[in-house]
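Why should sequence recovery work at all? Because a backbone constrains its sequence more than one might expect. Tight turns favour small or flexible residues, buried strands favour hydrophobic ones, and helices have their own preferences. The token representation captures these environments compactly. In the example below, the structure is given first.
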């Protein structure tokens, strides 16, 4: 049996495990991985690019309003619509057929998939925005760190996964992030600050132990 960390479901799982000790009480692996993504986005060094990504989507989602904007917002809507149409035209010219993936609240790790769609269409943004290089570099760094977590969530959401897969994919996440950090340490000009790498390790170790507590041996990056 497994659940998220909401008070009522968490307590229910504890009671079930007490009632029948043969039933294992597992933490929700996807929630743990998703919370790791959120924690990483809240690292101070990643906050600016995270906020810029959210602002970008807020800007373009304003263009998707189902209702007609008020008179005060009509000029803003028209201004945004011009940029949005320029972006779509640039993507069409460059052969970029897939659009942006919106950030949602009901799916796991959508911040990663949204960043992935922006990077996929970054050439289109470069045609309408001059100063996009710094944003692109910062977004690539965040994207690289979130990638193992988001891919693990996608795999674990499959209908044929079992409890063994949870441990396997967590090991894969830990190893991939360790590989990113080790490779970054060998660079003359590291992409990530040392305190950022330490914070990533702390977050992933905490979420890993939270997912495997009392059931698997400890492992750290």
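From this structural description, the recovered sequence reads:
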């Amino acid at each position: 049996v497994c659940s998220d960390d909401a008070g009522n479901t968490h307590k229910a799982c504890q009671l079930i495990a007490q009632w029948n000790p043969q039933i294992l009480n597992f933490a929700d692996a996807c929630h743990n991985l998703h919370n790791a993504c959120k924690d990483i986005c809240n690292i101070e060094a990643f906050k600016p690019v995270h906020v810029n990504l959210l602002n970008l989507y807020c800007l373009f989602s304003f263009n998707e309003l189902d209702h007609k904007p008020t008179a005060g917002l009509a000029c803003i809507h028209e201004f945004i619509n011009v940029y949005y149409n320029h972006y779509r035209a640039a993507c069409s010219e460059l052969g970029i057929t897939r659009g942006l993936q919106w950030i949602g609240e009901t799916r796991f790790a959508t911040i990663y998939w949204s960043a992935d769609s922006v990077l996929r269409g970054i050439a289109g943004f470069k045609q309408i925005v001059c100063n996009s290089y710094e944003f692109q570099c910062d977004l690539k760094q965040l994207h690289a760190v979130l990638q193992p977590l988001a891919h693990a969530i996608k795999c674990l959401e499959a209908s044929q996964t079992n409890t063994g897969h949870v441990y396997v994919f967590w090991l894969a996440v830990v190893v991939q992030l360790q590989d990113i950090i080790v490779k970054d340490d060998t660079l003359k000009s590291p992409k990530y600050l040392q305190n950022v790498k330490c914070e990533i390790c702390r977050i992933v170790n905490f979420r890993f132990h939270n997912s495997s507590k009392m059931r698997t041996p400890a492992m750290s990056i």
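A few observations help interpret the result. Confidence is low (pLDDT under 50) at residues 214-219.
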